[in-house]
Amino acid sequence: xxxxxxxxxxxxxxxxxxxxxxxxxxxxxxxxxxxxxxxxxxxxxxxxxxxxxxxxxxxxxxxxxxxxxxxxxxxxxxxxxxxxxxxxxxxxxxxxxxxxxxxxxxxxxxxxxxxxxxxxxxxxxxxxxxxxxxxxxxxxxxxxxxxxxxxxxxxxxxxxxxxxxxxxxxxxxxxxxxxxxxxxxxxxxxxxxxxxxxxx
Length: 200
Description:
By secondary structure, the protein is α+β, with helices and mostly antiparallel strands. The chain contains four helices and twelve strands.
């Protein structure tokens, strides 16, 4: 019986250790496929929790040309908060580029263009288990990369956090591909044919 209790405790601790937050895309939790966007399109992102544990702070980081805004906090902790990079930079008395560079150095990312911060904290100042389900939703992402006629613009979206010792870790990561509009592709093709004809 004693061994059984110990096993249950160990399994419980393992479950807590593997607790995670995920990026939900247009209502689909942790989709495997890359996100495909045309330049005029946006996508709605959520932060989804598994209900076992919640880290106090989650950082949604944009590596590549794109921006995020929103949002609606569904997490019920009384100190829950969602902030854009502009607010966090002002809090730290830094410019937005300097703040992005500082956070980028923590997460070893050199091309951060935007971030948002969701704080999952209750009135006692500690994380509060929630879910499973959506903790923060209606985070809108828009690619604004320069479309190359041959290659897609690639953006990496990362959901990360800090542990109690200040070490960084990644909860989830998504690849977003911005592809040309069909009309843009057609115009580029026509332009190429025109140039070819003039050069011939």
